[in-house]
């Protein structure tokens, strides 16, 4: 793996989740350029988010960054006592494979 990719992975793991409520997305910068990982949402109410789409830059897809982003956003929401719905098929898959035990109290259907 390249140093650039390892740096992006580290940024994704260690950077704060940014809630861009005006754009209805959570984002994490991947590097000093414009590369960001995002999860778009619709806000159902003050305490509930419908996570509708995950976006990782095309050249970085398939390297595990989406799974890291999913975990970070699930953790962010759970730590803030927010519920979430998983409309995004990728997030549904990641949740079912890796995180259903940890975050089941926060997921709504």
TrEMBL record:
Signal peptide: none annotated. Belongs to the NATD1 family. This is Protein NATD1. Pfam families: Acetyltransf_CG (PF14542). Transmembrane segments: none annotated. Residues 18-108 form the N-acetyltransferase domain. SUPFAM superfamilies: Acyl-CoA N-acyltransferases (Nat). InterPro entries: Acyl_CoA_acyltransferase, Gcn5-rel_NAT, GNAT_YJDJ.
């Amino acid at each position: 793996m390249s140093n650039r990719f390892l740096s992006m992975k580290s940024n994704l793991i260690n950077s704060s989740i940014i809630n861009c409520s005006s754009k209805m997305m959570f984002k994490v910068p991947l590097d000093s350029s414009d590369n960001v990982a995002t999860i778009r949402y619709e806000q159902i109410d003050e305490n509930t988010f419908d996570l509708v789409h995950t976006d990782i830059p095309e050249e970085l897809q398939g390297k595990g960054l989406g799974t890291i982003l999913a975990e970070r956003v699930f953790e962010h929401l759970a730590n803030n006592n927010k519920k979430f719905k998983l409309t995004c098929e990728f997030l549904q898959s990641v949740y079912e494979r890796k995180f259903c035990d940890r975050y089941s109290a926060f997921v709504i259907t």
